[in-house]
Amino acid sequence: MTDGILDLSAVVLDGSARTRDDAISEAGNLLVSVGAVDPAYVDAMHERETSVSTYMGNFLAIPHGTNEAKGSIKRTALSFVRYPGHVDWNGKPAEFVIGIAGVGDEHLSLLGKIAMIFVDADRVEELRSASSAQDVVDILNRADA
Question: Each residue of 5-35: pLDDT tens digit?
Fold first, then answer.
């Protein structure tokens, strides 16, 4: 699932954000740092959040940009930030924030695979206890198995 889509440098195991908006920026800036999106995409992630919450349940939020921001995407990519103490996402605890940027409709299959991981309590626990970026990538890649 993550081959070429989730760079190890876009995995943070102890996020620094303490608010929803800061978490969106942290996930978005990781996408910028790996060259997947222009900085304007991060603004579009915030804009999306004002119209519809990207909190998915099960301690997971998947912030992403608006359809109008598609031009800011250079390549399909994910970022992964874990917040051991969780971030308050409109009254709900987000422990995992996965930023997503998809060329065309590529984000749709990624969303489906991420959803399948997060309905599996054992897989969520593995992500919670992962000790390296490579562990996270390996756990997410098993979604294809």
Answer: 999 999 999 999 999 999 999 999 999 999 9
Six-digit token string for 133: 């970026």
Q: Calculate helix-pair angle for 133-141, 106-118, nearest 10 degrees.
A: 100
* Run of H or E including 32: helix 20-33
Nearest to 7 by CA among 60, 66, 78, 82: 78
Q: Residue 89: beta bridge partners?
A: 92
How far apart, in Å, are the Cα atoms of 140 and each of 4, 11, 66, 114?
13, 12, 25, 8
Please tell me the distance from the alpha carbon of residue 84 to that of residue 96, in angstroms, as a whole number: 8
DSSP-based helix, strand, coil % in the chain, nearest 5: 50, 25, 30
Kindly list the catalytic residues. 64
Residue burial 74-101, b: 16+ Cβ < 10 Å; e: rest: bebbbbbbbbeebbebeebebbbbbbbb
Residues 123 and 4: their CA atoms lie apart, in Å, by 21
What pTM value is reported for the model? 0.94
